[in-house]
């Protein structure tokens, strides 16, 4: 069994280029998702396990991962260098999915897989250059086979409707910003721009220990 930890000796290598400021969208999205998950966890306890619904079972892990949502989003951004807009569009996709399949809740068992899948799909749509599924799988703590399966499941659940208009994008940015103002008292601004990645050298990645991500439907971690 495997788990992501910050001091894992087999963690992904540190970037050699200078660090850039962490996009504000990561902290805003983390805040909103943590509140959503906490609310849904309480709801599922009060309504019983069946309240979770079965539509998101493909994204459920055996147990909740040890890594927090903020650290997981930071990890994805740090190693994939996808544009900040991908995190907003990934959130749009998850919201669409939930509206298309009511009765299923975003909870601690599925939020990480939903995030890595949605952000990866968003990067393919938005960014001219992006990493492949195998890279995202290593960053996200799942097997390549599992991530491929999750991507197909995700796309079909969305009926392949991946277009996000500028109007919809702006409305979701405003929604996320309002949530922060309402609950945290801060007045953040999400980065609206979409940048193009320039990938030159992809560092070799070691196999990581990611115990909590072992899925009932996967082979159990990276190979």
Automatic annotation (TrEMBL):
Gene3D superfamilies: Cyclin-like (1.10.472.10)
Record-linked SUPFAM superfamilies: Cyclin-like
Keyword Flavoprotein applies: no
InterPro entries in the cross-refs: Cyclin-like_sf, Cyclin_PHO80-like
Keywords: Cell cycle, Cell division
A biological process from GO: cell division
MF (Gene Ontology): protein kinase binding
PANTHER family in the record: CYCLIN-U1-1 (PTHR15615:SF121), PTHR15615
Family: Belongs to the cyclin family. Cyclin U/P subfamily.
Name used for this protein in its record: Cyclin-like, Cyclin PHO80-like protein
Species the sequence originates in: Artemisia annua (Sweet wormwood)
Lineage, top ranks: Eukaryota, Viridiplantae, Streptophyta, Embryophyta, Tracheophyta
